[in-house]
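Need tokens for this chain, all 305 residues.
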Amino acid sequence: MTKRGWALFVAVGVIWGIPYLLIKVAVVGGLTPATLVLLRTSIGALLLLPLVAFRGDIRPLFPRWKTILAYTAVEVTVPWFLLADAEQHISSSLTGLLIAAVPLIGAVLALLPGGEARPDARRVGGLVVGFIGVAVLLGLDVSTRDLGAAGELGLVTVCYAIGPMIVARRLSDVPASGVVAASLVVTALVYAPVGLAQMPHSLPSARVLGAVVILAAVCTSLAFLLFFALIAEVGAVRAQVITYINPAVALALGVALLGEPFTVGKAVGFALILVGLFLATRRRPVAARALAQSRDAPSSDAAAS
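Here are the structure tokens for all 305 residues:
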């Protein structure tokens, strides 16, 4: 991976390691899932629209409106509500664990016709090692009463695996800021009726308001622009591996800010995640790629026949 790719990878991984905590703060603090999604998307859209208007990034989107609606549904409208609803019932740690399945689902989808190049054994092994690391780091915490929320997060992982593929295949040549702004506006309009009706009667606490603002400005507007750049740099499947950084970010925040212990299990899990990241994101050597291509190429006799 290039230096630019690594910089984008780390930035997006860190930024998107924060939302689980912020979502938990918001829903525990009295906001309903619909209201939280409405506030997150509305604020994010207001921040991006001046930039989009100045650049003229809306007009190029019109011919792709169907694709943009599909992307909006699987990347924003559906998963953000499901995430907030699930975190009313289960811990943010378990949320991070289940969302870490996104790269595995993405790798499976890449095997389908029209998908990216078939993952090699090293990359698949890296994904598996990374997932084991997440499991060790966070531990499994699914009970019968949590099955509904776990099912919601399962749908989120599928959505998050499909979204980057739509970007890579259908939206790579349109302005990223325009796509993000359009997605936020559409989602805000979808949730406006319910979200406004469920607004709290009194002003939420400063902690909740701060969580919403950071969620919208940093973890939405800025993060999506960086994520589009990451997809363009490394591809959709490899970009999804950022989900292995998220639990590490949550661990660091817990140890540094909340005084949570750094146990042996956490150390081992974090190490496995780093190994998985290295294996899953490292390109094959040029010589090996050339040899593989030569083996896959048809012979001169076959080409002539």
